[in-house]
Amino acid sequence: MTDIEIKQIIKPFPATDGAGVKLKRSIGVEPDYFDPFLMLDEFGSEDSKDYIAGFPSHPHRGIETVTYMLAGEFEHKDSTGGEGKMMAGDVQWMKTGSGIIHSEMPAMKEGKLHGFQLWINMPASLKMSKPEYHYLDADEISKYSDSDKAIKVIAGRYKDTEGPINKHNVEPIYLDVELQKEKEFQFSIPETHNSFIYLINGTIKIGNNTNDIIEGSTLILLTKGDMLKVSAVKDAKFLVIAGKPIGETIARGGPFVMNTKSEIIQAINDYNNGKFVR
Ligand code: MN
Description:
Elements (H helix, E strand, L loop, with lengths): L5 E5 L2 E5 L3 E5 L11 E9 L9 E6 L2 E9 L2 E5 L4 E4 L4 E5 L4 E7 L6 E9 L2 H4 L4 E5 L5 E4 L3 E7 L1 E2 L2 E2 L10 E7 L4 E5 L5 E13 L7 E2 L2 E5 L4 E17 L7 E3 L2 E3 L2 H12 L6
Antiparallel strand pairs: 1-21, 2-3, 3-4, 4-11, 5-10, 6-9, 6-11, 7-8, 7-10, 9-12, 13-14, 14-17, 15-16, 17-22, 18-22, 19-20, 19-21, 19-22, 23-24
Bound molecules: manganese (II) ion (MN).
């Protein structure tokens, strides 16, 4: 057994995306890439000016986008005919493959919006595959609870509770953990995986070196190992996310992530020539 420790603590950067949505970006800026994870955004505000413009119609190729809503409502529409309203607790797991065009717009005029969008890279062998769209209602997400904690399992497994996303090439783990003050959460992660914690709120310590007390919106990259220990100094809510690295070179062009620059140019040409959606 190798204990998992803190590798790096990163405070997210303020960013603006879509038509002017304010968000906190961590992966995608610092670090630029944490294989297989390309981007992590926390969006959320009680002020509608920060989100009302939404994300009008835009394309993606070569990635998966995983959107997890904690509060508020978003409406999405995409080129596969998918359409619906995302509510608190719902997850949208989209494998864009060769190309998808979609819009993500707030379905609310006021009130609190809060959620996450994670981008997972796709390997060269899957980048041009047929788009796949998985919508998980809050009640389809597996749940575990005991007197110390409540866990939602979106992907991976905690004890006997297995998430609905399986048979996936990076063997992802995506947990939402609520841990009570002075309690500990122990979790086994495959040593092959890159893993991180995103603290949403509260105060935690991680691993054996407990000098670092972590508070508020924070990304914590973890070392490779197989035993993760998190203790709550105050009641805490955090995401535990892990995946097997893909190990390929990447070329980025905004919403397209491919392996080479010429594939990015191809994606831009396909989009401009109306050949994007196959
Ligand atoms: Mn998008």
